[in-house]
Amino acid sequence: MQTSETRRRYRTIFVSDIHLGTRGCRADFLLDFLRRTDCERLFLVGDVVDGWRLRKSWYWTAAFDEVLREVLEMARRGVEVTYIPGNHDEMFREWLGLEIAGVRLAREAVHTAADGRRYLVIHGDEFDGVIRYARVLALLGDRAYDWALTLNRLFNAARRRLGYPYWSLSQWLKRQVKEAVKAIDRFEVALAHEAKRRGLDGVICGHIHHAEMRLVQGVAYMNDGDWVESCTALVEHADGRFELVDWAEENRLSFWPEPERRTPAALARTP
């Protein structure tokens, strides 16, 4: 257990696109991040659980349970936890406005930073229509994207055996696709425009698995990335400064052993 002196302290943490229920989810990296950081506020910016994938085939591990327990423990300790469901966990949108075990569910939020600036916090799938369904996952297609993630796992398994840390091959492949790069730019412009229309200073989102911080027409666009490919989080410091944290890169993390799979029956028996 990390002591308070060795834990990183932030005012606010934003994470999204965890995709619990998929083989590509790096729950081990996320657990390491959550257990070595402290914050006053935690925003879960969508696609925490991948309901789409779980409906097709069941895949659940003990590490996924641990992620959920850690979030609930943070809420119990007094961290203000806000959950903004995305398109892959849209089933939780039926509970918007409720607070469950200290976790508040909302369609979107406006976050006021320590310096007084205000940011729209939204998953981002609402803008798929604006960019004509050109988000990266749609461009590559479900099968091609799954293939890229499988290749990513095999590639990093080989790197781990050779003593090398995690490196996202799937992210690199995505950056080589010209149309994917164009789609990302259209997505960023669309969300920044929406924040500007509302009179806000910026937007914080997820959805496209592409961590970024940049100014778009004078508006701050910040995407916290994901925990499938890049293992990144957006954090706010005590003075209102924002920073993207690449946890795998900073800590030279490697793939850990394949976690124990859990069946629905086993989950039902969990106290």
UniProtKB/TrEMBL annotation:
One of its GO terms (biological process) is lipid A biosynthetic process. Residues 11-210 form the Calcineurin-like phosphoesterase domain. The keyword Endoplasmic reticulum does not apply. InterPro entries: Calcineurin-like_PHP (IPR004843), LpxH-like (IPR043461), Metallo-depent_PP-like (IPR029052). The keyword Membrane applies. GO terms for molecular function: metal ion binding; UDP-2,3-diacylglucosamine hydrolase activity. GO terms for cellular component: membrane. SUPFAM superfamilies: Metallo-dependent phosphatases (SSF56300). Keywords: Cell inner membrane, Cell membrane, Manganese, Membrane, Metal-binding. This is UDP-2,3-diacylglucosamine diphosphatase.
